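Researcher: Structure for this, please.
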Amino acid sequence: MGLDIDKFLSTVTTDEKFFLNMPIFWTVSITGVSVGEINGTLILAGETWKANVDIMDMTENSAGNILVAQSVTLPNEQPQFDTMVAAGVDGMGGFLPTYGLKARAGFLERQLSVNFLETQMDVAHNFFRPWLIAIGINGLIEDGGSLKGDMEVRQYSNGGKFIKGFKFNKVFPTAVEGYTLNYNDTDVKIHSVTFGCLNYQQL
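Model: Predicted structure, C-alpha cell format:
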C-alpha cells in the first residue's frame, strides 16, 4: 500500500507531535547558594570582590533580570575501563583480554557548561566570579554545603510549552570565561560558565 502524500503532509502540518521547535532560550534557576556565605568568605580573606545580587531573585519576573541561556552543554558520562589483570588470566591461551569497569568519571569530568545571556545585570561579575573566588578561598570540603547549590534548566517551545529540562545537584562554578569588550561591539554579551556537579536528572 503506497504512502498517501496528501494525508502525510496534512498530518505533519497540523499534529503538534511532528512540529519542529525553533531555537529558543533555556531558562535557568539556581537555588540553595548562600550569598551571605560567599560575601563572608570574601571579606575574611580581604577580597574586594562581592556578590551584588541574590541569584535566586533572578528566577522571578519581578526581578527584571531573568537568567536565560543561549546554550547548555550537558555533562559527559564516560567511565574508565581496564583489563582484568587481577584475575591473572589475561592473554593466556591466546584469548582476548577481558575488561571491567575501573571507575566512574568524577565530577570534574562530568562538567556542565552554560552560556548565559547578559541582561541588565552583569551576572558574571556580580555573582559567578565572586562565587568562584569564594570557592577558591574556602574550598569545597568544609563549607557546609553553603557554596553549592541546585540548578534547573528548562526549555520551552515557541508556544510556551515545556519541552525538556534537567536538574543538577550540588553545582558550583569551576571556570568563568573571559570576553572582549571593544568600541564597535554591539552584540549581546555571552557569559560562559562551567560548573561541576554531583549528579543530574531529567525533569
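Researcher: Any notable elements?
Model: The CA atoms of residues 87 and 98 lie 10 Å apart. The chain has three helices and nine strands.
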